Fold each of these.
Amino acid sequence: MELFGQMMHIPMLLSSIIQAAARHYGDVEIVSRRVEGDVHRYDYEDCHVRCKQVAQALINRGIGSGDRVGTLAWNGYRHMELYYGVSGIGAVCHTINPRLFPEQIAYIINHGEDRYVFFDATFAALIEQIAPQCPNVEKWVMLCSEDALPRDFPVPLESYEVLIEERAPDFVWPSFDEERAAILCYTSGTTGDPKGVLYSHRSLTLMAYASALPDALCLSTTDTLAPVVPMFHVNAWGMPFSAPLVGAKLVFPGAKLDGESLSTLFAEEGVTMSAGVPTVWLAFVEHLARTGKRCSTLQRVIVGGAACPPSLAASFKNFGIRSVHGWGMTETSPLGTVCTPSRGCSKKTPQERLLTESKQGRAVPGIELKTVGPDGAELPRDGRTSGELLVRGHWVLERYFGASASALSGGWFATGDVATIDENGFLHITDRSKDVIKSGGEWISSIALENIAISHPEIEAVACIGRAHLKWDERPILIAVLKEGSALSVEDVLEFFAGKVAKWWLPDDVKFVKSLPLTPTGKINKLALRQQFGHVEEQTIAQTCNPSGARQVTN
Ligand code: AMP
């Protein structure tokens, strides 16, 4: 006979996180750099009061269980209030990425069936453009006071401050099933329509607990966290939940994410920990190097969303900042792995330690990983054999929003990443399966070549893509942005690879550009680069078709 435990069952709801923060860390600050240009500060107690006002206002207007409420907003206190106020009444906070194309934004507002949409003043022109395509949105609410509402706006608008002005001292957070939806976030849709991932109260609460662990993000009330990763994409890696869970001070950077703005904010607010994608951090360390500025309080930064080049980790180290590599995706809420040292790592050589630190790390408790070969069979955890990465866990998607079929195969989610896992469970992403370069039947890791190129002191940004090749299928080429004043030639760059990779891994060519295209989530847009540079070079066609060099093929 099965014997069940006899413990209380209290649903894990996000509202309980902000309520506890108000009780236990009530005077801990939340600081926001606002789009209005000033800095706003209040504490967890004030935040909780206003979350309840949001909740009450929405209930009064008939927003209820399961209804979707959209947000188009930077990281800030009002966005945080919506996270809790909307989800706390059983409605769903649908965070929308404003960097998507307007048609995609309209598509996901309609697909998500958002009844209300809240937006920062920065996005007023965007709202004007998309509102006619979103006839089912009942109310557009600008995150501002009434006097800041634009005059003669073609779409009826309401002010957030007016909407939530009524006090709600008697409001009590409702209790409901922890499996109910809390937040909806769409993938960036670089290949096809964006797909919705619907996080539950349970999944987000469990991720918040796991992320705070010492060998994960190691969060405490003594920390001051500055989430640079946006709240409009994958919950700012859960920090709006994990920070109040432990009572950490929160510093929201708003819209300005350049090196100067971030370093000033970090210094002013005593930020101890931050998190962001490599493109943001490359600009940040470049700024520190150029200006001689330092962020003396900053102890560690989480680098994720794309591979952290070892040279970036080394730059951080030079500034006395520890970089911590993490991996995740929209479908994993996103926290999947974090690279923190293993027991006994002090006995390793500096070289071995560097190698481990460059990996994406171990699965946080609650997440399981494995790699499989083309036949679906599990591959050895030897740190060498690479295959497709599969994941499962408490905060991993089961099916996309609105889909009738599960997204899983045999209970696992296929990530589309190619990786190795070593004996100690350290994950190493060698590529995205669509980015890996297939040359003469062998695979070349675009990340490995990028890591070498970006360590060149005169290269500011770089991407490696496969260029179609008549003989080899694909060959690697680099698209590079040079630092100001650099006169590097193609040959100089290629020479830099000598002795660092096998000969057949050497890139065939280097194209110099002024800037690299970015995806809506701030990563390098390799799809756009492949479209521009990935076709067979005319010269190669000519040589292959007519070794004498006379061009016979036209395109
Ligand atoms: P997204 O769902 O837009 O957040 O993208 C998720 C994808 O970003 C993953 O499947 C990986 O391809 C990539 N990614 C995230 N973190 C890392 C990392 N630390 N190293 C390499 N790739 C990463």
Amino acid sequence: MRQSQLFATTLREAPAEAEVASHRLLLRAGYIRQLAAGIYTYMPLGRRVLRNVEAIVRQELERAGAQELLMPALQPAELWKDSGRYDAYGPELIRLSDRHGREFALGPTHEEVITTLVKNEIGSYRRLPVTLYQVQTKFRDERRPRSGLLRGREFLMKDAYSFDATLEGLDRSYRKMYDAYHRIFERCGLRFRAVEADAGAIGGEGGTHEFMALADIGEDIVVVCPHCDYAANLEQAASKAELAEHRGKSVPAIETIHTPDVRTIEQLTRHLAIQAGDVIKTIIYSADGNPVAVLVRGDHEVNELKVKNLLGANEIVLADSETVMKATGAEIGFAGPIGLSIPLLVDEAVAAMERGIAGGNETDYHIGNVVPGRDFSVERSGDFRSVKEGELCSRCEEGRLQFVKGIEVGHVFKLGTKYSEALGAGYLDANGKEQSIIMGCYGIGVSRVVAAIVEQHHDERGMVWPTSVAPYLVHLVPVSVKDETQRQVAEDLYGTLQRMGIEVLMDDRDERAGVKFKDADLIGLPIRIVIGKDAADGNVEYAERHSGEKRLVPVAEALDLISGANAASLH
Ligand code: ATP
Ligand code: MG
């Protein structure tokens, strides 16, 4: 491609609302243009990167045995009503109606469409398993479309769906996708972690992993262990409780302590000159309307998701003052475990305390010398607390957990029979019995991946594309196109590289060298060949954007280096 003809304009400044590096740089270098909030045109350079990412995605999915199809973006509302998601999806679902007043939605995801399709195509276990995928534009009316391609309202997604007859089959299908995702993100040059995650809006049962590209501007916090490969999202993460050894010590009987208007842990520790870790904190929740007490150490926080999962509840909320009064006989701030007649969930770190100070179930009173197991039941003990940075990893028990930020670039999810049951997608098993198909779903935000790559691969001058996804491998920059020798050497190289099948951009513009170099840095192609005054002696400068390394080499050697880099970029 000749840069004089390239449909791209570089900008010195990015619009003020472009806060993150990928948004700024993709705009400035002319890779994307905004049409409306969260809605972008991929300009020729951006389109090439997108296609490169798509190609990697397709290769790895086909390698894993998935088959590509393309489903409609325009979907009858009926389907969404049948699955129960028409209301549940909320305002993110873009709704519209046709000339006859029939309701439609623009697909934010395709479980409904594909389950209906498979229901009509597959009747017998003999046709299972099958995994289908598409690369398609998705529509979500995000509350806060922001950060350019990272959170769009119209964006490109690869979505795949697996269909199996058995749970073991689902495990195999899931594993294949999980492995393919590793290869995809590695080939895209991303530093990432596969993170154990909770079942989100899609719902369902069993395992789910989010693939997180590590970046400081990420919206999600990922808990990682520097010692092993443990990674989990913040809600899901578990740490090993470090418990003091205190067997055999005897503790005097409980004592009542007057604590007027002392309601918070902070007030209590100040009032009694103790540490937060000496306190047994009792929080009353309402789980689907039923009161339950959760006990954590004063220096820990309750993890509501863990409580909710253990109880199998749909919803848990902090109990209101009336419920607390009814359950404890006291105002909020004085709940304790002794004598409570509601279920007690005791965090393992509390269960292991030698003694603690707890609420007295009487306004303005606490109780000291409370011994877990002696003074209240620790029958239902488990992990009910949120992890804190620096705690011991629950897997290897050696590393100290770190909190890092991530961008969710992919998601693999065991759905089970949620959609096949709702939409009646069954198959006949070997005994001729009707069964529900067991599903998995697997998404990659293809356009978000492009932005995530930029977040990880840029410097103050511009983007630094990995060769696997760069829009062109080589940037030829004749310093002066008015110089006949330089122009000729550049043209020759350009022709040779094209014949070699190497993607090359040549800056044939009659611009000052400084402008050309600035633009080249911004556009960020992996290899730059500068053709300057040494061209007269048959030498050109070979420069790597990534390392900044430059050297003067004969043209033939430059070609060798380029073809080596090209071979390395093709897996
Ligand atoms: P998020 O929590 O970021 O909103 P999600 O859980 O809604 O993501 P999924 O429904 O699992 O996302 O969609 C699959 C993939 O599509 C995500 O892993 C992400 O990479 C991508 N994606 C989701 N929403 C957007 C968006 N608004 N813009 C760009 N990519 C997106
Ligand atoms: Mg979302």
